[in-house]
């Protein structure tokens, strides 16, 4: 396993749509999953998409921090692996939340996302899953799957006044 270099906003790989994974059992896919888990553990983030480490494949690894863990997310353990995920909204309700990204270090932005989503994906064994998520988990799914389509969270910010340095988030009061 290895800690991989995380690409930053502006790298053209982050702006491209990632390709579907055709063979989940391929050794290079297993190695990439292990390396992405190690990278996420090392960096301390909540999620990581393959394009962020320079690989144009539809692969996401994420975890739900303890304070946001629901009964559903606790069942899946520390890391979840999503191969070829597809996310769709459940309803029209949106909510604002502050987001950060390993590819946009030092900044946070207020992003409006669907409160609840359904995600269909394969896990690392090739098993197909469908899961419904809301709140923080829904936000992570949308954020990470955006990476697979070449979209970073700043593209969703409605007002550039809501893109700030993470060290200044405490000034946002009750919104944060």
Automatic annotation (TrEMBL):
<feature type="binding site">
    <location>
        <position position="143"/>
    </location>
    <ligand>
        <name>Fe cation</name>
    </ligand>
</feature>
<dbReference type="GO" id="GO:0042586">
    <property type="term" value="F:peptide deformylase activity"/>
</dbReference>
<feature type="binding site">
    <location>
        <position position="101"/>
    </location>
    <ligand>
        <name>Fe cation</name>
    </ligand>
</feature>
<protein>
    <recommendedName>
        <fullName>Peptide deformylase</fullName>
        <ecNumber>3.5.1.88</ecNumber>
    </recommendedName>
</protein>
<comment type="similarity">
    <text>Belongs to the polypeptide deformylase family.</text>
</comment>
<keyword id="KW-0648">Protein biosynthesis</keyword>
<keyword id="KW-0408">Iron</keyword>
<feature type="active site">
    <location>
        <position position="144"/>
    </location>
</feature>
<dbReference type="InterPro" id="IPR036821">
    <property type="entry name" value="Peptide_deformylase_sf"/>
</dbReference>
<dbReference type="InterPro" id="IPR023635">
    <property type="entry name" value="Peptide_deformylase"/>
</dbReference>
<keyword id="KW-0378">Hydrolase</keyword>
<feature type="binding site">
    <location>
        <position position="147"/>
    </location>
    <ligand>
        <name>Fe cation</name>
    </ligand>
</feature>
<dbReference type="Pfam" id="PF01327">
    <property type="entry name" value="Pep_deformylase"/>
</dbReference>
<keyword id="KW-0479">Metal-binding</keyword>
<comment type="function">
    <text>Removes the formyl group from the N-terminal Met of newly synthesized proteins. Requires at least a dipeptide for an efficient rate of reaction. N-terminal L-methionine is a prerequisite for activity but the enzyme has broad specificity at other positions.</text>
</comment>
